[in-house]
Amino acid sequence: MASLQDIDTTKTFYATVLSNERITPDESTEDVREIVLEVERNSFNYEIGQSVALLIPGPHEFGNPYHLRLYTIAGDAQGRDGKPAITLCVKRCFYIDDVTGEQYPGAASNYFCDRAPGDRVELSGPHPSPFSIPPEKTDNILMVGLGTGIAPFRAFIKHIYGEHGGWDGKVRLFYGAKTGLEMLYLNDKNNDLAHYYDRETFKAFEAVSPRPAFDAPAELDKVIEQNAAEVWEMMRDPDTYVYVAGHSKVGELLDQAGARMAGSADKWERRKAELQAGGRWAELMY
Questions:
Q1: Residues 224, 225, 226, 227, Cα dihedral to 10°
Q2: Predicted local confidence at residue 62, as pLDDT
Q3: Are 74 and 191 in the same domain?
Q4: Domain at 181, CATH number
Q5: Helix 265-277 to helix 249-262 angle, to the nearest 10 degrees?
Q6: How far apart, in Å, do the first and last CA atoms of the chain sit?
Q7: Nearest Cα to 141, choosing from 224, 227, 244?
Q8: Is residue 1 part of a domain?
Q9: Is the previous residue joined to 84 through a cis bond, with omega within 30 degrees of 0?
């Protein structure tokens, strides 16, 4: 979670909720919503992968005037009368008190998920992101994510095949969720990414949890290893850019798969360090 020390909140703006739609099926235990916001200013320019910060008025703990949470922009949208609009992907979150064991709702996510069309929210941004579109259309894009980490990848894919006019390099998405119902933008309720399956350069690989009732993580590492030859070839290609997003568990799963692909943890860490040093590795995890 971001803090007021990390984010410039001196310049804020308001947005009106145009729609708030659940994109996980009703039978899913996960409530994830696609929220479309109409920005209440004449121009709103952002780059793919950037975020906006939701500011919930206080007072809050420790005297903070706002409770703040960053949300990556999942894509643009059509506002009324040509006004700018953006799409966000928001998961309703809860946390367990370590002492009492009681469950409490996450302040920002529940506030956001409860907004109805016509409600106004205060935001700041757009804020910088480690993600940016590779410089050449022949570059390879390798995306690995969990949960709402799909948001920047959805924006990437829509941009390069839509506004960017297509992509010549390989585009590979490895994405994990608890069950098939939680495959955001890849489930029966909302299957946006299926529109790109017929693109010659695009492939998506999905991973689910073997024991979702026990909160076991999605077997993202195994799906990567099943495609190890191509993934490792891409990792060694000087024209490949790697993007990792979502729950912090994604980094651990990728490291596990990477160590086995490379032959050892040391070799994997060296390759990852080379990609990072070359500006071809970016992470956005929470």
A1: 60
A2: 60
A3: no
A4: 3.40.50.80
A5: 110
A6: 7
A7: 244
A8: no
A9: no
Phi, psi of 155 (to 5 degrees): -60, -40
Mention every residue, 6+ apart, whose C-beta is less than 8 A from residue 144: 174, 175, 220, 224, 242, 243, 244, 245, 250, 254
Name, in order, each residue with C-beta under 8 angstroms of 159's C-beta and a sequence gap of 6 or more: 48, 133
Q: Kindly report the pTM of this predicted structure.
A: 0.78
DSSP conformational letter for 42: S
CA neighbor of 178 nearest in space, from 199, 148, 135, 138: 148
Q: Using CA atoms, how far apart are residues 235 and 157, in angstroms rounded to an integer?
A: 20
Residue with token string 């999605």? 218
Domain assignment present for residue 201? The answer is yes
* Spans of the chain, pLDDT less than 70: 1-6, 59-66, 187-190, 212-216
Q: Which residue has the tokens 């959805």?
A: 154
CATH number at residue 112: 2.40.30.10
